[in-house]
Amino acid sequence: MSDQRDPTPYDALLLLSFGGPEGPDEVVPFLENVTRGRGIPAERLKEVGQHYFLFGGVSPINEQNRELLAALRADFAEHGLDLPVHWGNRNWSPYLTDTLREMAKAGHRRIAVLTTSAYASYSGCRQYRENLADALAALEAEGLEPPRVDKLRHYFNHPGFLGPMTDGVLRSLADLPGGVREGARLVFTTHSIPVASADASGPVEEHGDGGAYVREHLEVARLIAGAVRAETGVDHPWDLVYQSRSGPPHVPWLEPDVCDHLEELHGSGTPAAVIIPIGFVSDHMEVLYDLDTEALAKAAELGLPVRRSATVGADPRFAAAVRELLLERAAGERGVPVERCALGSLGPSHDLCPIGCCPARAPRPAAAGADSPYA
Protein backbone atom coordinates (compact mmCIF):
# COMPACT_ATOMS: atom_id res chain seq x y z
CA MET A 1 0.00 0.00 0.00
CA SER A 2 1.33 3.44 -0.93
CA ASP A 3 1.89 6.20 1.60
CA GLN A 4 -1.01 8.06 -0.05
CA ARG A 5 -3.39 5.30 1.08
CA ASP A 6 -1.66 4.07 4.21
CA PRO A 7 -3.56 4.96 7.41
CA THR A 8 -0.96 3.34 9.67
CA PRO A 9 -0.85 3.64 12.68
CA TYR A 10 -4.62 4.17 12.67
CA ASP A 11 -6.99 1.22 12.50
CA ALA A 12 -10.28 3.19 12.60
CA LEU A 13 -11.83 6.63 12.29
CA LEU A 14 -14.35 7.92 14.83
CA LEU A 15 -16.85 10.61 13.79
CA LEU A 16 -17.55 12.47 17.03
CA SER A 17 -20.51 14.84 17.15
CA PHE A 18 -22.86 16.65 19.52
CA GLY A 19 -25.97 14.53 19.10
CA GLY A 20 -29.64 15.46 19.20
CA PRO A 21 -33.12 14.14 19.96
CA GLU A 22 -35.05 12.14 17.39
CA GLY A 23 -38.54 12.43 18.88
CA PRO A 24 -40.59 14.58 21.30
CA ASP A 25 -39.98 12.26 24.28
CA GLU A 26 -36.22 12.65 23.85
CA VAL A 27 -36.05 16.46 23.88
CA VAL A 28 -35.94 17.19 27.63
CA PRO A 29 -33.66 14.20 28.47
CA PHE A 30 -31.31 15.36 25.72
CA LEU A 31 -31.27 18.93 27.09
CA GLU A 32 -30.64 17.52 30.58
CA ASN A 33 -27.56 15.78 29.19
CA VAL A 34 -26.34 18.97 27.54
CA THR A 35 -26.84 21.14 30.65
CA ARG A 36 -25.97 18.62 33.37
CA GLY A 37 -24.20 20.26 36.32
CA ARG A 38 -25.40 23.78 35.52
CA GLY A 39 -28.45 23.75 37.81
CA ILE A 40 -30.95 24.67 35.09
CA PRO A 41 -34.56 23.91 36.20
CA ALA A 42 -36.78 21.55 34.21
CA GLU A 43 -39.18 24.39 33.40
CA ARG A 44 -36.41 26.24 31.59
CA LEU A 45 -35.44 23.11 29.67
CA LYS A 46 -39.04 22.69 28.49
CA GLU A 47 -39.00 26.32 27.33
CA VAL A 48 -35.81 25.78 25.34
CA GLY A 49 -37.26 22.52 24.06
CA GLN A 50 -39.98 24.42 22.22
CA HIS A 51 -37.44 25.07 19.46
CA TYR A 52 -37.24 21.32 18.92
CA PHE A 53 -40.99 20.76 19.25
CA LEU A 54 -41.53 23.15 16.32
CA PHE A 55 -39.78 20.48 14.23
CA GLY A 56 -41.54 17.47 15.71
CA GLY A 57 -39.01 17.06 18.51
CA VAL A 58 -36.38 15.97 15.99
CA SER A 59 -32.98 17.59 15.61
CA PRO A 60 -31.62 17.05 12.09
CA ILE A 61 -28.07 16.54 13.35
CA ASN A 62 -28.19 12.76 13.76
CA GLU A 63 -29.54 12.19 10.24
CA GLN A 64 -26.91 14.58 8.90
CA ASN A 65 -24.23 12.60 10.72
CA ARG A 66 -25.54 9.42 9.11
CA GLU A 67 -25.21 11.11 5.72
CA LEU A 68 -21.67 12.23 6.51
CA LEU A 69 -20.82 8.74 7.77
CA ALA A 70 -22.03 7.28 4.47
CA ALA A 71 -20.10 9.91 2.50
CA LEU A 72 -16.88 9.13 4.39
CA ARG A 73 -17.25 5.39 3.88
CA ALA A 74 -17.96 5.88 0.17
CA ASP A 75 -14.96 8.18 -0.26
CA PHE A 76 -12.64 5.81 1.61
CA ALA A 77 -13.80 2.85 -0.51
CA GLU A 78 -13.46 4.81 -3.76
CA HIS A 79 -9.86 5.73 -2.91
CA GLY A 80 -8.79 2.31 -1.66
CA LEU A 81 -8.55 3.34 1.99
CA ASP A 82 -9.40 0.23 4.02
CA LEU A 83 -10.38 1.82 7.31
CA PRO A 84 -13.65 1.36 9.24
CA VAL A 85 -15.57 4.50 10.21
CA HIS A 86 -17.62 4.63 13.42
CA TRP A 87 -19.86 7.31 14.93
CA GLY A 88 -20.48 8.45 18.51
CA ASN A 89 -22.10 11.49 20.16
CA ARG A 90 -21.38 13.51 23.25
CA ASN A 91 -24.97 14.03 24.35
CA TRP A 92 -27.26 11.44 22.73
CA SER A 93 -27.38 8.01 21.16
CA PRO A 94 -25.15 6.60 19.80
CA TYR A 95 -23.19 7.68 22.87
CA LEU A 96 -19.42 8.13 22.64
CA THR A 97 -18.65 5.68 25.46
CA ASP A 98 -20.79 2.96 23.87
CA THR A 99 -19.13 3.44 20.49
CA LEU A 100 -15.62 3.38 21.95
CA ARG A 101 -16.51 0.25 23.94
CA GLU A 102 -17.60 -1.49 20.74
CA MET A 103 -14.43 -0.34 18.98
CA ALA A 104 -12.19 -1.52 21.82
CA LYS A 105 -13.91 -4.92 21.91
CA ALA A 106 -13.43 -5.17 18.14
CA GLY A 107 -9.69 -4.79 18.70
CA HIS A 108 -9.13 -1.19 17.59
CA ARG A 109 -6.03 0.19 19.31
CA ARG A 110 -5.28 3.52 17.57
CA ILE A 111 -8.23 5.67 16.55
CA ALA A 112 -8.26 8.96 14.61
CA VAL A 113 -11.11 11.26 15.67
CA LEU A 114 -12.95 13.79 13.52
CA THR A 115 -15.11 16.22 15.51
CA THR A 116 -17.95 18.12 13.84
CA SER A 117 -16.45 21.42 14.98
CA ALA A 118 -13.92 23.18 12.77
CA TYR A 119 -12.57 25.83 15.14
CA ALA A 120 -10.62 26.29 18.37
CA SER A 121 -12.63 26.92 21.54
CA TYR A 122 -13.45 25.18 24.81
CA SER A 123 -16.87 23.97 23.64
CA GLY A 124 -15.66 23.22 20.11
CA CYS A 125 -12.45 21.38 20.95
CA ARG A 126 -11.36 20.84 24.55
CA GLN A 127 -14.82 19.75 25.74
CA TYR A 128 -14.78 17.01 23.09
CA ARG A 129 -11.35 15.98 24.37
CA GLU A 130 -12.67 15.90 27.93
CA ASN A 131 -15.55 13.68 26.81
CA LEU A 132 -13.05 11.37 25.13
CA ALA A 133 -11.03 11.16 28.36
CA ASP A 134 -14.20 10.40 30.35
CA ALA A 135 -15.14 7.64 27.93
CA LEU A 136 -11.67 6.09 28.01
CA ALA A 137 -11.67 6.20 31.82
CA ALA A 138 -15.05 4.43 31.82
CA LEU A 139 -13.64 1.64 29.62
CA GLU A 140 -10.63 1.31 31.90
CA ALA A 141 -12.93 1.03 34.92
CA GLU A 142 -14.76 -1.80 33.13
CA GLY A 143 -11.50 -3.69 32.74
CA LEU A 144 -11.03 -2.91 29.06
CA GLU A 145 -7.75 -1.60 27.69
CA PRO A 146 -8.59 1.88 26.35
CA PRO A 147 -7.40 2.58 22.81
CA ARG A 148 -5.31 5.63 21.98
CA VAL A 149 -7.30 8.40 20.32
CA ASP A 150 -5.84 11.24 18.23
CA LYS A 151 -8.06 14.17 17.27
CA LEU A 152 -7.55 15.40 13.70
CA ARG A 153 -6.55 19.05 13.44
CA HIS A 154 -8.92 22.00 12.98
CA TYR A 155 -10.04 22.16 9.36
CA PHE A 156 -11.58 25.64 9.13
CA ASN A 157 -9.12 26.70 6.42
CA HIS A 158 -9.00 23.45 4.44
CA PRO A 159 -10.20 23.89 0.83
CA GLY A 160 -12.55 20.93 1.24
CA PHE A 161 -14.37 22.92 3.94
CA LEU A 162 -14.17 26.34 2.29
CA GLY A 163 -15.07 25.27 -1.26
CA PRO A 164 -18.59 23.96 -0.56
CA MET A 165 -19.43 27.04 1.50
CA THR A 166 -18.18 29.37 -1.23
CA ASP A 167 -20.40 27.60 -3.75
CA GLY A 168 -23.32 28.00 -1.35
CA VAL A 169 -22.76 31.76 -1.22
CA LEU A 170 -22.64 31.97 -5.01
CA ARG A 171 -25.93 30.06 -5.28
CA SER A 172 -27.55 32.31 -2.67
CA LEU A 173 -26.39 35.47 -4.44
CA ALA A 174 -27.74 34.16 -7.73
CA ASP A 175 -31.10 33.53 -6.04
CA LEU A 176 -31.44 37.17 -4.94
CA PRO A 177 -33.42 39.56 -7.15
CA GLY A 178 -31.17 41.02 -9.84
CA GLY A 179 -31.76 44.59 -8.72
CA VAL A 180 -30.28 44.03 -5.25
CA ARG A 181 -27.76 41.25 -5.93
CA GLU A 182 -24.68 43.36 -6.57
CA GLY A 183 -25.20 45.42 -3.41
CA ALA A 184 -25.80 42.42 -1.16
CA ARG A 185 -23.79 42.21 2.04
CA LEU A 186 -22.26 38.94 3.19
CA VAL A 187 -23.19 38.20 6.82
CA PHE A 188 -21.00 35.42 8.21
CA THR A 189 -22.39 33.92 11.40
CA THR A 190 -21.20 31.55 14.10
CA HIS A 191 -22.17 30.48 17.59
CA SER A 192 -21.69 33.19 20.19
CA ILE A 193 -19.60 32.17 23.21
CA PRO A 194 -18.59 34.09 26.35
CA VAL A 195 -16.01 36.77 25.59
CA ALA A 196 -13.71 35.29 28.25
CA SER A 197 -13.85 31.89 26.56
CA ALA A 198 -13.14 33.43 23.17
CA ASP A 199 -10.16 35.37 24.50
CA ALA A 200 -8.71 32.15 25.97
CA SER A 201 -9.21 30.03 22.86
CA GLY A 202 -6.19 28.54 21.17
CA PRO A 203 -2.61 28.11 22.41
CA VAL A 204 -1.43 30.47 25.15
CA GLU A 205 0.92 32.41 22.88
CA GLU A 206 -1.97 33.24 20.52
CA HIS A 207 -4.27 34.73 23.13
CA GLY A 208 -5.70 38.20 22.54
CA ASP A 209 -9.02 39.83 21.87
CA GLY A 210 -11.25 37.07 20.60
CA GLY A 211 -8.41 34.53 20.71
CA ALA A 212 -8.12 31.87 18.04
CA TYR A 213 -11.92 31.47 17.86
CA VAL A 214 -12.58 34.93 16.42
CA ARG A 215 -9.36 35.02 14.39
CA GLU A 216 -10.14 31.73 12.65
CA HIS A 217 -13.70 32.80 11.79
CA LEU A 218 -12.47 36.12 10.42
CA GLU A 219 -9.99 34.22 8.27
CA VAL A 220 -12.72 31.98 6.88
CA ALA A 221 -14.95 34.98 6.15
CA ARG A 222 -12.09 36.77 4.38
CA LEU A 223 -11.22 33.71 2.30
CA ILE A 224 -14.82 33.06 1.21
CA ALA A 225 -15.44 36.74 0.43
CA GLY A 226 -12.25 36.74 -1.66
CA ALA A 227 -13.30 33.60 -3.53
CA VAL A 228 -16.72 35.14 -4.24
CA ARG A 229 -15.04 38.30 -5.53
CA ALA A 230 -12.78 36.26 -7.80
CA GLU A 231 -15.77 34.38 -9.21
CA THR A 232 -18.22 37.25 -9.64
CA GLY A 233 -16.02 40.33 -9.98
CA VAL A 234 -18.07 42.00 -7.22
CA ASP A 235 -16.43 43.02 -3.95
CA HIS A 236 -19.28 42.38 -1.51
CA PRO A 237 -18.77 43.99 1.93
CA TRP A 238 -18.97 41.51 4.77
CA ASP A 239 -19.31 41.19 8.55
CA LEU A 240 -18.83 38.49 11.20
CA VAL A 241 -21.81 38.24 13.56
CA TYR A 242 -23.04 35.79 16.17
CA GLN A 243 -26.10 33.75 17.07
CA SER A 244 -27.54 31.29 19.58
CA ARG A 245 -26.45 33.06 22.75
CA SER A 246 -27.60 31.10 25.82
CA GLY A 247 -25.80 32.67 28.79
CA PRO A 248 -27.05 34.99 31.56
CA PRO A 249 -27.44 38.66 30.54
CA HIS A 250 -24.72 39.91 32.91
CA VAL A 251 -22.01 37.75 31.28
CA PRO A 252 -20.47 39.35 28.14
CA TRP A 253 -20.83 37.19 25.02
CA LEU A 254 -19.56 37.82 21.51
CA GLU A 255 -21.68 40.33 19.58
CA PRO A 256 -23.41 41.61 17.45
CA ASP A 257 -26.37 39.25 17.26
CA VAL A 258 -27.42 38.35 13.73
CA CYS A 259 -30.97 39.71 14.10
CA ASP A 260 -29.73 43.00 15.56
CA HIS A 261 -27.27 43.22 12.70
CA LEU A 262 -29.98 42.73 10.09
CA GLU A 263 -31.85 45.68 11.61
CA GLU A 264 -28.70 47.81 11.38
CA LEU A 265 -28.14 46.81 7.75
CA HIS A 266 -31.71 47.70 6.85
CA GLY A 267 -31.42 51.02 8.64
CA SER A 268 -28.24 51.88 6.76
CA GLY A 269 -29.82 51.20 3.37
CA THR A 270 -28.23 47.85 2.57
CA PRO A 271 -30.38 46.38 -0.23
CA ALA A 272 -29.93 42.65 0.53
CA ALA A 273 -27.86 40.13 2.47
CA VAL A 274 -26.69 36.54 2.40
CA ILE A 275 -26.37 34.81 5.79
CA ILE A 276 -23.49 32.34 5.79
CA PRO A 277 -23.31 29.96 8.81
CA ILE A 278 -19.58 29.31 8.71
CA GLY A 279 -19.53 28.17 12.35
CA PHE A 280 -21.62 25.06 11.63
CA VAL A 281 -20.74 21.91 9.72
CA SER A 282 -24.38 20.99 9.03
CA ASP A 283 -27.90 22.43 9.18
CA HIS A 284 -28.66 21.40 12.77
CA MET A 285 -31.16 23.02 15.13
CA GLU A 286 -29.31 26.29 15.66
CA VAL A 287 -29.33 26.81 11.90
CA LEU A 288 -32.94 25.69 11.42
CA TYR A 289 -34.34 27.78 14.27
CA ASP A 290 -31.98 30.70 14.92
CA LEU A 291 -31.38 31.43 11.24
CA ASP A 292 -34.09 29.84 9.08
CA THR A 293 -36.83 30.71 11.57
CA GLU A 294 -35.86 33.75 13.65
CA ALA A 295 -33.40 35.58 11.40
CA LEU A 296 -35.38 35.09 8.20
CA ALA A 297 -38.54 36.19 10.01
CA LYS A 298 -36.73 39.35 11.11
CA ALA A 299 -35.60 39.96 7.53
CA ALA A 300 -39.16 39.51 6.25
CA GLU A 301 -40.43 41.93 8.90
CA LEU A 302 -37.88 44.50 7.73
CA GLY A 303 -38.57 43.88 4.06
CA LEU A 304 -34.89 43.04 3.58
CA PRO A 305 -34.18 40.42 0.89
CA VAL A 306 -32.06 37.73 2.58
CA ARG A 307 -30.91 34.27 1.60
CA ARG A 308 -29.33 31.71 3.90
CA SER A 309 -26.33 29.93 2.41
CA ALA A 310 -25.68 26.20 2.76
CA THR A 311 -23.42 24.51 5.28
CA VAL A 312 -20.89 21.87 4.23
CA GLY A 313 -22.93 18.85 5.34
CA ALA A 314 -21.93 15.65 3.57
CA ASP A 315 -20.45 17.33 0.49
CA PRO A 316 -18.03 14.91 -1.24
CA ARG A 317 -15.29 17.55 -1.07
CA PHE A 318 -15.58 17.61 2.71
CA ALA A 319 -15.43 13.82 2.87
CA ALA A 320 -12.29 13.97 0.72
CA ALA A 321 -10.83 16.60 3.06
CA VAL A 322 -11.36 14.27 6.03
CA ARG A 323 -9.50 11.52 4.18
CA GLU A 324 -6.66 13.92 3.43
CA LEU A 325 -6.49 15.07 7.05
CA LEU A 326 -6.39 11.49 8.28
CA LEU A 327 -3.66 10.40 5.87
CA GLU A 328 -1.70 13.57 6.57
CA ARG A 329 -1.78 12.84 10.31
CA ALA A 330 -0.94 9.17 9.76
CA ALA A 331 2.09 10.06 7.66
CA GLY A 332 3.24 12.51 10.31
CA GLU A 333 2.91 9.87 13.00
CA ARG A 334 5.13 7.59 10.90
CA GLY A 335 7.68 10.36 10.40
CA VAL A 336 6.93 10.68 6.67
CA PRO A 337 7.18 14.25 5.30
CA VAL A 338 3.77 15.40 4.06
CA GLU A 339 2.20 18.59 2.76
CA ARG A 340 -0.36 19.99 5.22
CA CYS A 341 -3.09 21.63 3.17
CA ALA A 342 -4.47 24.98 4.36
CA LEU A 343 -5.52 28.21 2.68
CA GLY A 344 -4.89 31.73 3.92
CA SER A 345 -2.39 33.22 6.33
CA LEU A 346 -2.98 31.19 9.50
CA GLY A 347 -1.60 27.96 8.09
CA PRO A 348 -2.44 24.43 9.22
CA SER A 349 -3.46 24.04 12.84
CA HIS A 350 -1.51 22.00 15.38
CA ASP A 351 -1.95 18.21 15.51
CA LEU A 352 -1.56 17.99 19.28
CA CYS A 353 -3.35 20.49 21.49
CA PRO A 354 -0.66 22.08 23.69
CA ILE A 355 -0.94 22.52 27.43
CA GLY A 356 -3.10 25.55 28.23
CA CYS A 357 -4.92 25.44 24.89
CA CYS A 358 -8.60 26.41 25.38
CA PRO A 359 -8.39 25.99 29.18
CA ALA A 360 -11.17 24.18 30.99
CA ARG A 361 -13.61 25.86 33.35
CA ALA A 362 -12.34 23.47 36.03
CA PRO A 363 -9.36 21.09 35.96
CA ARG A 364 -10.37 17.96 34.05
CA PRO A 365 -8.37 15.38 32.09
CA ALA A 366 -8.57 15.66 28.31
CA ALA A 367 -7.53 13.12 25.70
CA ALA A 368 -5.65 13.86 22.46
CA GLY A 369 -3.46 16.62 23.85
CA ALA A 370 0.01 17.22 25.21
CA ASP A 371 -1.38 16.77 28.73
CA SER A 372 -3.44 13.69 27.95
CA PRO A 373 -3.37 10.79 30.43
CA TYR A 374 -4.08 8.47 27.48
CA ALA A 375 -1.24 9.44 25.13
Topology summary:
Layout: E1 12-17, H1 27-35, H2 42-53, H3 61-78, E2 85-89, H4 96-105, E3 110-115, H5 122-141, E4 148-151, H6 159-175, H7 178-181, E5 185-191, H8 195-199, H9 211-232, E6 238-243, H10 258-267, E7 273-276, H11 285-288, H12 290-302, E8 306-308, H13 316-333
Structure description:
Helix 1 (27-35) packs across helix 2 and helix 10 (258-267) packs parallel to helix 12 (290-302). The chain is globular and about 65 Å long. It has 2 domains: 3-20 and 59-153 and 314-333, Rossmann fold, CATH 3.40.50; 159-308, Rossmann fold. The strands form 2 sheets. Strands 2-1-3-4 form a 4-stranded parallel β-sheet, sandwiched between helices. It has a 4-stranded parallel β-sheet with strand order 6-5-7-8, with helices on both faces. The chain has 13 helices and 8 strands. The chain starts with 11 loop residues before the first strand and ends in a 42-residue tail after the last helix. The protein has helices at residues 27-35, 42-53, 61-78, 96-105, 122-141, 159-175, 178-181, 195-199, 211-232, 258-267, 285-288, 290-302, 316-333; strands at 12-17, 85-89, 110-115, 148-151, 185-191, 238-243, 273-276, 306-308.
Reported by name, the CATH topology of the largest domain is Rossmann fold
**Structural class by secondary-structure content:** alpha/beta
N-to-C terminal Cα separation, in Å?
A: 27 Å
Shape: globular
Proportion in helices = 40-55%
Number of strands: 8
Instruction: Specify the oligomeric state.
Output: single chain
Which range does the strand content fall in? 5-15%
Task: Write down the secondary-structure element order.
Answer: EHHHEHEHEHHEHHEHEHHEH
